[in-house]
Amino acid sequence: MIVETGIVTVSRGAEKVLLKAGEKVKITKTSTLNKEEISDHLHNYYRSKEFIANNTPLSRVAEVLSEAYETEIILEDPSLKDLRLTTTFKGDSLDTILQVIAETFEIRIERKGRQIILTK
Prior knowledge:
Blueprint: E1 2-3, E2 7-12, E3 15-20, E4 23-27, E5 33-37, H1 45-48, E6 50-57, H2 58-68, E7 72-75, E8 84-90, H3 94-105, E9 108-112, E10 115-119
Parallel strand pairs: 7-10
Antiparallel strand pairs: 1-4, 2-3, 4-5, 6-8, 9-10
């Protein structure tokens, strides 16, 4: 859950987390609530159908695209994680977005079932 405006309280059992605009909560494997700040606008996709990346690490872009397109995007080489992307995709297919990323960073796209692997 990501809060765009206002304040939201999220609870799980006795544990509570107060979220403000620009924050999100994740439930860990041990079922605890972790509050995190959001430094990009990629999460707005669900409302605006736009992915807006502003000097955003490729690892974050891959995370959001995986969620939005219900797939698993894997950055095989750790050096890919910190590559920075600044662009806006509006209403583009996942294939189009991946092609732009591949051309921008000169990387390859490999598909294995529901997994999409980005490699150097």
